[in-house]
């Protein structure tokens, strides 16, 4: 017992003197599973029975003493484990965090959405995996119609009725079928076509289509809406023109061109020397489409339009190759940090 008391005293002195050094080193030496506190606790075995109570008390006090010292050492080091004595200048600025950026397709899609939202259009979305009815048949494109060739796509072998949508007009059909009129929506989303990949075509791309159905909607409304869009998107100086075209779901149909942004209409390689570039298709909704979707075509009329987001983005930022959008090359994507 006498020896034990002496040993505890010596240890206490040693611990009290431990002021500079690592808390972990202290812990291992004193409190670890092979540490001195544990070893000295083992001395209880050699203590006479009548002294066991007193010795237990002393040993326990000693253990608490060592533990408190350990906590104090830990608190004097910083949270990062760097001791207060280390020569590190904590006032230096941190390494900059790399800033992410939106994908150019998202930037332009958001901008298109904002322009049409200001005109009262709501955003509607639908599935990318569609059935034949919503993608083709309801849109006046019955099976075996030659115009289906314009939009060849990918079919799902599990169910011959399923396909990857070729346009977001399928979302317009779904909205019309709900039967709530008037309808004023834009439908952004990814679409698919079975095309060979090149600088100008891809097997998937993004669209924003639009639909307005009410009483007395006319072609003049269509023109004015799209004219507003072009001015907001590309600036006040840009001119538009409409060329007659064909789509099974609109009648009459048109393609809309804008004056070339590169040469201002003089003629260059981008506009193939014509001074104009095509940006979207549009027209008055075909009465058959309204009837297919349960809307009275004698009472209601409407216009629809559809544009490729990649195409608008390429014109806006003068990007020459469609493949850049899906290659995820940071040298390309970084250029859009902070762009709006
Ligand atoms: N759905 C057509 C396409 O993807 C675009 C379009 C929409 C044309 C609405 C006219 C009216 O090619």
Task: Explain this structure.
The chain folds into 2 domains: 2-80, no CATH class; 104-336, 2-Layer Sandwich (BirA Bifunctional Protein, domain 2), CATH 3.30.930.10. It has 12 helices and 9 strands. It has helices at 2-17, 23-31, 36-41, 52-76, 104-118, 132-135, 169-177, 219-234, 287-292, 309-317, 324-327, 330-333; strands at 122-123, 129-131, 162-164, 183-192, 204-214, 240-247, 250-259, 276-285, 301-308. The strands form 2 sheets. The protein has a 7-stranded mixed β-sheet with strand order 1-4-5-9-8-7-6, sandwiched between helices. Strands 2-3 form a two-stranded antiparallel sheet. The longest helix has 25 residues, at 52-76. The site of phenylalanine (PHE) has 11 residues, from strand 8 and strand 9.
């Amino acid at each position: 017992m006498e020896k034990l008391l002496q040993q505890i005293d010596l240890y206490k002195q040693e611990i009290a003197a431990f002021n500079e050094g690592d808390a972990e080193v202290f812990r291992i030496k004193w409190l670890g599973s092979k540490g001195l506190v544990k070893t000295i606790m083992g001395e209880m075995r050699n203590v006479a029975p009548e002294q066991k109570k007193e010795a237990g008390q002393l040993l326990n006090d000693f253990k608490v003493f060592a533990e408190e010292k350990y906590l104090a050492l830990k608190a004097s080091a910083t949270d990062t484990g760097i001791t207060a004595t280390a020569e590190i200048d904590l006032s230096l600025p941190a390494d900059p965090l790399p800033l992410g950026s939106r994908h150019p397709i998202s930037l332009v899609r958001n901008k298109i959405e904002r322009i049409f939202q200001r005109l009262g259009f709501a955003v509607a979305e639908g599935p990318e995996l569609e059935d034949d009815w919503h993608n083709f048949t309801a849109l006046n494109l019955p099976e075996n119609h030659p115009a289906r060739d314009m939009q060849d796509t990918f079919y799902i072998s599990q169910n011959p009725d399923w396909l990857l949508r070729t346009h977001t007009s399928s979302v317009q059909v779904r909205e019309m079928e709900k039967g709530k009129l008037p309808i004023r929506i834009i439908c952004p989303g990814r679409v698919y076509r079975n095309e060979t990949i090149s600088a100008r075509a891809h097997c998937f791309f993004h669209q924003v289509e639009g639909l307005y159905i009410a009483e007395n909607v006319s072609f003049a409304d269509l023109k004015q809406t799209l004219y507003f869009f072009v001015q907001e998107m590309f600036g006040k100086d840009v001119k538009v023109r409409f060329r007659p075209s064909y789509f099974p779901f609109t009648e009459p149909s048109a393609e809309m061109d804008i004056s070339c942004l590169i040469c201002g209409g003089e003629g260059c390689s981008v506009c193939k020397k014509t001074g104009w570039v095509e940006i979207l298709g549009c027209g008055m909704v075909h009465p058959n489409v309204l009837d297919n979707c349960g809307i009275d075509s004698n009472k209601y009329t409407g216009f629809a339009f559809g544009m490729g987001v990649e195409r608008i983005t390429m014109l806006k930022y003068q990007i020459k190759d469609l493949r850049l959008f899906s290659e995820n090359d940071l040298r390309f994507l970084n250029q859009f940090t902070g762009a709006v």
